[in-house]
Design a protein that fits this description.
5-stranded antiparallel beta sheet, 22 strands, mainly beta, 4 helices
Length: about 400
Amino acid sequence: MKNIKTFYFITAVAGIIIFVSACGTTGKYSDEGYLPRITEITRTQKDLLYNFLNMYNPHVLKEQLPGNEGYPYTMWFYGWATEIMNVNILGKPGGDSIFVARGKDLYTWEVYKGDGTWDTTMNPALWRPVVVPGSNPWDSMHASDPYVVKKDGIFYLMYSAAGFGLDMIYPYAPGDEDGDLMSIMGAVSTDGINWTKSEEAVLVWEQEKYMFSSQIHEWWLSHDDMDNFHGWYHRPSFMFDESISKWRMWFDYYGNSRFGITLGYAEADADADIMKASSWRIINADKNPMYANEFPNPDVIKIDNRYYCTTDPRVVTYGANPRLVPSDGFYRRQIMFFVSDDGYDWRPVGWITPDRDTQANQVAQFYYEDGILYVFYATMRWNDWMQDRIRVIEIKKEVFEKW
């Protein structure tokens, strides 16, 4: 009995020492002197969409699609339902595709399965995409990363596209001369389900049209001349900004070998046809990024007169405590938040740790309603790179307005 009591006493003391070390203001787990962690959040860890193979980028609007009374919310997301590249739905070679769900509230979702019907059982084998790879050089391989804005009764979609390139020969197949091509494409719809795509890429690095993929690959391996490559436009986030009467689009692209994927930016006039590349003025790209550090997967929202952005870089590069972030794997990349008074100049304000049952929260998208900032995101499987669930956290206005 004495030995048992001694064991429990030693264990309790050890636990107190560990707790004090972890929580003390100068301990190795402290945020003092580091980029702060955002902890004033409601983390439900409720799975909103699940059972799929690999899906993410959940973009939510409070828009009831025609004929869907009682479902005031709509979510567009993308990925692979049950098989790599959706070959079971699209046939070979398949590709990333965009899906849609309707919500009774922000926590209860049904996924579109075609012909005006919706799956309530979380059976991805029944799900059918609403935007799929096309038959042009721009998106013949992938349609992904959806971002939707509704204006004057029209749904506008911007999405990441990847295609065979101008020669329309499958990359690396015999006779291929230009590899693949990455860009941002657009589409319009009156119902959020049936879309008419732009005729060509809305945003693209012009030189990438004529580059063979092996050139880029060799640069990536050697880092020779990578400072002269500035393509891979992806991950659009856009809005019509009433305060400056312009369309605004943030996106990520390859900046240089120092910070890799970073933040680009473009604008279009209020009356412009935003489905045409000629309507957009690319202001930040090439060697002039909007933010001179890694900045993958940006999403921007405007609340009152302030702009908020989320991204998921390696947080240690922004000053997060490295003892809280392992040195390798996707765990290094977590959700971060930035603020801006004008949408041009950004200031990092903090990051959030991942959910306890995942190695990383990734590819977040904002939604705001009634004083709550909702951050929808995907969770990454352990020892893998695929995203297996879609969830949401809540941040109260009195918290984020202090950032």
